[in-house]
Fold these 3 entries.
Entry 1:
Amino acid sequence: MERQTAWDKILQHLKNRVHETDFETWFRDSRQSSESHDLILVRVKSPLFVTYISDNFAQQIAEAASLAGFGEREIRFGSDDSFPGSVAPHKSTPETRRRTSALNPEYTFENFVTGESNRLAHAAALRVADQPTRQYNPLFVCGGSGLGKTHLMQAIGHRRLSRHPGDRILYMTSESFVNEVAQGIRFNRMEDVRHKLRAADLFLVDDVQFFVGKEASLTELFHTFNALYDDGKQIVFSSDAPPREINGLTDRLKSRFEWGLIVDIQPPEFETRVAILRKKAETHNIDLPDDVAYLLAARCKKHVRELESSLSKVKLIADLRGEALTAELTRDVLPDLIGGRDDASSTPTEILKAVAAHFGLKPSELRQRTKKGAIVFPRQVAMYVMKEATSMSFPEIGRLFGDRHHTTALHAVRKISALREEDPELNRQITNLIAQFRP
């Protein structure tokens, strides 16, 4: 049997920390080139892979290395063009690592896109970063996977460090916390572990739901919380659910999690998803056409991580082919994503909700028979979007809005169609709305 390298062991943990498609694309053909007591060299396909992996997966790799027992080693990537003789990146000093605990440089408030789905969580995180207070201690951020909890938590760390460079910022995933405790017990150095945890000025722990069933770690977390809280240190937790809904968590920890403020992050709405894509495109100098942004935003509805990963994949393929980034190429590269139609999102009810929200109205108002201009125009837009995005006939659309004949819907479609040709801004808004419901 071939001996496993350090990188092979790291990959076993990395598989569980990145999307399956990302793992197959970026890491499947990676190989360890050499290894020393403080450095692991990994060979990948090309310089493009070196840059992309370093820019997008640094945090996940660091966590996987820690879980595999190689957390103290530097991991450096290179390709045939850069091995041998690649220049080592600047390596942080032990003191810097102790204070920042491997914060991802991209996870800042400046790079965090806010919308209705995350506005409260963003505001609370800013407050904690700028003015720590007992009222928000601990701050508990909950929400589904890939919605930005980790980004927001690490942004707190970055902002605190920029304002108070001497503070000790300790960010940990639940896995790294459990691993620290396990290693401490195994090698009889729990006092060192406790000193590290309780020396933090800002303590951030991600995905606390994974502590369930880890009794020793739950005990250490409880006592660490008490020590830091009594010393007036800021604590921030994240989870996929509110404390009371985490089955298997001890009551005493649930109680402490609820001492401060609990905020949640919901899946981003369409406009926020488009803004996230544009932000990523701006950051990485990607020329992103509106139709591509709308197409990706319409189909990647649940996870910010999936949204950004899809854009990166499409851009990479476009570069490798030497083609422009277009909607046609996007459909070709992501057929499963783009081809799959979400029936729930294409119902008239969902279209009503989307159009009403766009104009600041309630869906029921769009169905009122009224001559008020503030409702008539949005109502016509809703009819137009339904005709463009569904297979409904004019009579069916008319009946949905309480009209016995199809002439009202027909008039609405003709009017909006004409206005789109005259008004570029309205045309952009209508295209935005339709993109949410049409593949």
Entry 2:
Amino acid sequence: MIRAFSYFASGDFVTGMMMILSSLFVVLCCTPIHEFAHGYVAYKLGDDTAKVQGRLTINPLAHLDLIGSIMILLFGIGYAKPVPVSARRLKNPKRDMAIIAIAGPLSNLIMGFIYNFIAIAISHIANYSSMSSAFYVFFTLAAEINVMLAVFNLIPIPPLDGSKVLASALPTKTYFKYMQYERYIMIGLMILLFTGALNGVIRFLTGIMMSFISIIPNLIFK
């Protein structure tokens, strides 16, 4: 949304508005799917905690976190309210927790691919007009934000999903010792986010992933 203001200032109201709308779309429609993916995979692996607590839904009201949503709107990176998972109900807790964790970022990558596919299709098929240009910007930004969220969540530090994937590769004692510092690591992560220290790395990795998911649609619409 911060980037949108620069477009408003330059007189490009269409691009600025599409930036705001795409961010709202991700907050209201994509982050709930991310959390639903966690809950659904956990349910399939034997843990019904999310279902019992009413989190096995794509209703945004069940998942939105105020601070995390504001961060997505302002910076393109944020979070929703984590879906509860009970490791004790899983047959293979260490492995299953990693599978559950990866489900969220994977859903963002799938959504990113779909929206990027639509954007590229628009750029190749639709005749140039202010309407087609606006839709192109909307879907391109929706794809970028989803990919950025996937990259961000795969960072292997708590409480992000990547830390649970890391847990499957670490000895249990080492992981629990690491998790003792979760609160301090989270504070450090928030500082890095608000100061923009992670922006360069996240945007670089997002750019690589965007190029990768553009291969198939570019071949189709060549």
Entry 3:
Amino acid sequence: MFKVLLLNDDYTPMDFVIVVLQRFFALSREKATQIMLKVHREGIGVCGIYPKDVAATKVQQVKSYAKQHQHPLQCVMEEM
């Protein structure tokens, strides 16, 4: 299993991060806000835990979406 992680940057708006978490990880606004604040304060936050292929797909979806909207948001996966 793999953790999908969002990394903090100084440019991506907090509201955009919340939208990403809701859209690609099916989180409630409240849960998405909690994770966004963790990313903001600690530099990294776990979006979810998935099998390798699902995690890789989610990372690519988030990176693509951020790029389309001209944000430098980074998403990575890490084996547990």
